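Supplementary Note 2. Why include the ligand at all?

Several targets in our set were suspected to adopt different conformations when bound, so apo predictions alone were not considered sufficient. For every target with a known small-molecule partner we therefore ran a joint prediction. The input for 2-acetamido-2-deoxy-beta-D-glucopyranose is given below.
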Amino acid sequence: MAPAGVLHCTLLWLTVAAVASLLTKEQRDSIVDQHNIYRASVNPKAADMARMTWNENATLVAEKYASQCIWDHNPAVKNIFGESLFTSTGPINVSKVLHEWFKEHEHYDYDNNQCSEDEQCGHYTQMVWAKSTSVGCAAHVCATFQGLPGFTNTTIVVCNYFPLGNVVGHKPYQAGEPCSQCPENWTLCEDNVCGPEHKDVLPSTETEHGDILPSTETERGDILPSTETEHGDILPSTETEHGDILPSTETEQENNTRAMPEHAVIASKAGTGTLILARLLLAGLIASLVF
Ligand SMILES: *[C@@H]1O[C@H](CO)[C@@H](O)[C@H](O)[C@H]1NC(C)=O
Ligand SMILES: *[C@@H]1O[C@H](CO)[C@@H](O)[C@H](O)[C@H]1NC(C)=O
Ligand SMILES: *[C@@H]1O[C@H](CO)[C@@H](O)[C@H](O)[C@H]1NC(C)=O
Ligand SMILES: *[C@@H]1O[C@H](CO)[C@@H](O)[C@H](O)[C@H]1NC(C)=O
Ligand SMILES: *[C@@H]1O[C@H](CO)[C@@H](O)[C@H](O)[C@H]1NC(C)=O
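The joint prediction is reproduced in token form.
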């Protein structure tokens, strides 16, 4: 009865995870809707923007990684998923996180495909990456953080995108009349984004939208091999990379040590790679370690 035993453990783990890191159905729907609204509102307009759906696989990966409370990219997914990270002391409104990521468009120049110097825009470019058709996110409250000394009772948000974006040498989308260059079999234009004509061209996870089906539980282990040992190599300069705190929260941060207000300290991280990627982003390049 070994298989039954395995299943039992998996279910138990799932329950714990559900308490710890899963977002509600409402939050998931809102993440998908918000992505599609943002994807439809890029400037210049996008000709080939695909509609985004919820990705259950990516969610399981994000959830497991979030619960590890590490301020660094998940090395196990760097060639599989795009990844954006966000953390803040106190509770997090995921909707605001997405807004902050989208706001990076102010620092992005479409024509030369670059960020302004010393600014991040990789969260934005991943968010509006035309070929990324699904996203899965998780949030977790961490008592302490590896890689962010002094952060206690901090919430981390992890979003994994599939297929991954921020591919070196590519723009996030093709500029042009909305839906004028939709991918094959994705020509159903709705609200200025390309949608699949038939349900059967959707990724298999589409039917699992919003809830975890038993069949996904066994997939959990495959996706994320033990990564704990790979995170020791956090580079000394990580703190400086978190200096690019979002403008709206900078003032709150000054009072952090005394008042400890919500959202007192915010750090944000985009891309699919490691800290090398973060450096590239800071250097004003849209790049990643994607091959
Ligand atoms: C989260 O932020 C959004 C946008 O700022 C706002 O409309 C919403 O009410 C907030 N939700 C909560 C629970 O505060
Ligand atoms: C973190 O939260 C727990 C539970 O609310 C609380 O007991 C603890 O004092 C908090 N720690 C810090 C450093 O704020
Ligand atoms: C588009 O749909 C047709 C008919 O279902 C199928 O044969 C073809 O492989 C699809 N193309 C792509 C790129 O999925
Ligand atoms: C979900 O993960 C499983 C196991 O890794 C994989 O076989 C399946 O293709 C994935 N589905 C999607 C839509 O990525
Ligand atoms: C810090 O807190 C003090 C008193 O609570 C307030 O007067 C001041 O404006 C705050 N400073 C910032 C930058 O928020």
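The mean pLDDT is 70. Strands lie at 53-54, 82-89, 108-109, 114-115, 134-144, 152-162, 188-190, 193-195, 266-269. Comparable summaries for the other entries are listed in the accompanying table.
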